[in-house]
Each structure stands twice: as C-alpha cells, then as structure tokens.
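ok so for the tutorial part 2 we go from a plain amino acid sequence to predicted structure tokens. step 1 is just haveing the sequence, like this:
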Amino acid sequence: MPTIKDNIIEILIKSKLLTKEKLDGALEIQKAKGIPLRKVLVEQKLISEELLLSLLSEQLFIPTIHLSKYKFDHAVIRLIPERLARLYRLIPLSRIGNTLTVAMADPLNIFALDDLRTLTGCSIDTVISPEEEIDHAIEAQYRIETKDMQTILNESEQTKDKDVQLLKDDEIELSSALKDSEKAPIVKLVDLMLAQALKKRASDIHVEPEIDCVRVRYRIDGALHDILKIPKLNQNAIIARLKIISSLDITENRVPQDGRFKVRFEGKEVDFRVSSLPTTFGQKFVMRALDKGNLSIGLDKLGFSEQPARIFKEAINKPFGMILVTGPTGSGKSTTLYSVLNQLNTPEKNIITIEDPVEYQVDGITQIQVKPDIGLDFASGLRSLLRQSPDVIMIGEIRDPETGDIAIKASLTGQMVLSTLHTNDAISSITRLIDMGVEPFLVASSLIMLCAQRLCRRVCPQCRKPVDIPKEFLEKIGFKHKATFYHADGCKYCGNTGFYGRVAILEAALIDDNIREMIIRKVSIDEIKKYAVEKCGMMTLRDDAYLKVKEEQTTLEEALRITTEE
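step 2 — the prediction. this is what the tokens look like for a chain of 566 residues:
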C-alpha cells in the first residue's frame, strides 16, 4: 500500500505544482533531516499546508479537519493512551457506537490503525489534520499538568499519611487534614498552582472535586482551560490548605464561605478573592485574581474607542447624577468603575463604596462590605453612608427596588453615584429601573450616562494570519469598514488559543433633555435607542466591535460572538 509520502509525490507530479528539480531538492532535505516530506514542503514554502491537505483529501477520499476550535470529549480522549497518541501523531475525536473517529497526520499508517483496533475494540474512521495542530491538541488534552506539578504530586504520593481517609460525605478528619496541609508537597503544590495561574494571565482558578480526582482549571481570556488533575487522596489536604491561607473556617463544610488572601509575585502584590461552595464530591473553590496593576489611572489606558471614551469623560466631569455600567458577569464593569474612582480619588473628595464583596482594596477610598446575615445589606448600608457626607458613591450592584430608589434619590441630592446593572445593552437600563418601581420622572432626572460593556479577546499577534471574508457575508452583517481580517490557529505564545489578552468594547449614551422627556412619556426603548444612535451618534456594542476588527485588534468571528445583531 502506498505511504503518505508516495501519495504526496504522486499528487505533486500529477498536478505539476512543483518542478522535478524542486521536488528532488525537497526529498534530499527530507532524507538529510529525517523529517516528514509534508513538513519540508511547507517549511520551504513550496506549497501551503492548506492546499497540500486539500489535495491529499481529494486523492485519498479522507476528509480534513482543523483542530484549533474543536471541542474534545475527555471520555473519548481516555480511550487512547498518550504514549500511543504521540507515537503515531493522532488524537481521538468522537465515538459513535462501535466506530471511533481519529485525526491523524498519516491516515495510511496501517500499524497505527491495527494498534488502535486492538486497543479499543472499535472500527476506526480517520480524518487528516495538520501535524502542528495534532501536536497542540495532544499537549492540551494529555499534558494538562506540567512536569513541576507532576514531580510534586509524585512526592506527595510517596509521603502520604496511610491513616488519612475520606470519611462520610461533607466530613473530614480535621487533624489529619491539617497535618497533611502543612506537608511540603501540598504547600508547594498550592503555591505553584497560584504562580502558574499568574504566569498564564488567569483571572480565576477553579478547584473542583470530582468522583475520582480534583480538577484544576484556569480562566484565561474569559475561557476555562483544564490544567491539572490532583489525586483524590490529596483532596482534604488541598482544601484545608486553601482554607488556611484564605482565613476560612476549616471546621465548616456545609455552607458557602468567602475569604481572601494576598500574594507577592514577580515584585507586585496580587489579591485573591476566594469563594467555597459545598458540592456532591466536596467543596469547590474559585479564586479570583485581582491585580491592582490593572486599575489604570483614568480611562485613557483602558483601551476604549475614542467616541465612547469621550462620552464617559464628559459624564464623570459632571458634579452629580448617576452613571450606570451594564453587562454580564466578567465583562470588566468593576475594573472600569474602579479606574473612574482612581481618577476621581483626590484629597478634597470623600469617596465611599458599598460592595458584595469588596473587589479591590484602594487607598484613600472608604469601602463597605455587605453582610446580609447581620442586616447590613445594600439598602441599609446606603442609608448609613449617605450620612457620611460623601461626594462620590459606588454601589456594587443595584439588585432590588429599595437600593435603586435610594441610589436615584442620592444622585438627585448632590452626589455622583456609580453602579452596575445586568442588562443586555445600555438603554435597557431605563426599563430595568422603572420595572423595579422607580418613578420615570426620577429616572429621567437622575441619569447622566448609560453604558454597556463587553470584553473582546485580542487576536494573537504572533500567529495571526490574514483571511478572506466573502463580500456577501460582510454586507449581510452590516460591516462597512475597509479592513484586513485576521484569524489565528494558536501557538506557544498564546497557549494554542489564538488569542492573547482582552480589550473592552463600550456602548455609551449621554442622557440629554430629549431622552429625559421620552422617559417621562414612557416612549419604547427601541425608539429611545434609535434616537440615541441617529441623533446623538451613539456607537452600539457591535459598531465598536467592528471598529476593533478594523484596527486589527480582534477577529470578525470574536466580534460577532460577543455582540448581538442590532
């Protein structure tokens, strides 16, 4: 049976894509270096990998697939050992009945196919994928723990206390867990978990007990990635260690708890906000990294587009009124509001925040932590802080009618009030406040600016490459700019994700007299939004996302993913 190399040679001769001299030269390089002919042809830029894959697919009647965006099933991955996947450069994709579909760099390798049939007992279907993408997928799916972490886990295995055992659900042997949590391997493992999260730019660390292990995931640029699996026998010690450093009650396992701790990493201090939650297999922990370095002094360093940034600056220069920032959890609302507070934070101003929980601890600002269990909720806390003669008030979130009513009235009596809401766009905040029971005339009088925010992933600068987008599709989605479109398959720099970092997109609307009159007359939100766009020049979230595409900061796919059609 012809090998993949034979097929490539035959394809190139038939198609006359390469001269005999160039092909012979490529074969000589291949023999000298001992690497696949496919790789030589691509490296020497004799043919693009995309075209070569397409030609191979036609010749062999085997489909091709790109793995960079493929969602893998860990149950299917476990069918094939890592050693075999690396040996034959393959990765399992799916299993339907007794048929296992596998992506291979060389789908004609009969030894690999025989081994897979024997090992899995399945019939094997193959697809072709680029070698580099298969290597990335193997790294991501099999090597989810680093060598350093694995070394520590091995050490932990060797030094484990034979008497430690899991007792009833929700119950741990406290003295043993405390003893284990102070052992060097456990301490090192938790420290390394935190250090790696900060190195990888993770915003959150998830420690999740499962039936047979403890899974660790990092949220990087808004997406969760599997990093490590810790043996189940270390679960109690890991939980105890996390509770100790977070100043949580280690005897309490039945109710959620909140804590925080601070670390110094590479010369800077980073706060971690910790939340524990009882689950079926033990307590789940989520640790959010809060880096004060992200709190830019003012709005100029947040990366907003010129038009929404100008509107925002105009609003915060007003002496009183309410500014609302809306968006889903994790859209950067708190970072934006704290950046504004930093800009307003001068000795002559009394700034007070009431939050649940306090995200960033900032010098010169009075911060109140909501504690509902003792009666200190947003409404009661807000009433009290109004007696403290504040100039600027920041409310973590307007959740109920009472808080909304007090906040609105505070903004009418000479205070600047900043807060957040969960709505899909900026103008919908008006409806939300009215639905909470706030009178339309109070809403109209108090609001000075509404804005909606999202975080958009930046395309990786190292591996991005231009792509063609059909003109018909651009017309359909209303993209009117002249732009070069980019896509990234992933590289070592971006952790094989194709994205590196995030940028904020903003929809900002100043409330003028006409909009106030429309609110009092209870005009529909659609009409108010139409007026804001056409008469006030409001840039919608999608408009701003398209601008970021034009500026080559993100991909068109990402812009469409995070915004809704207008």
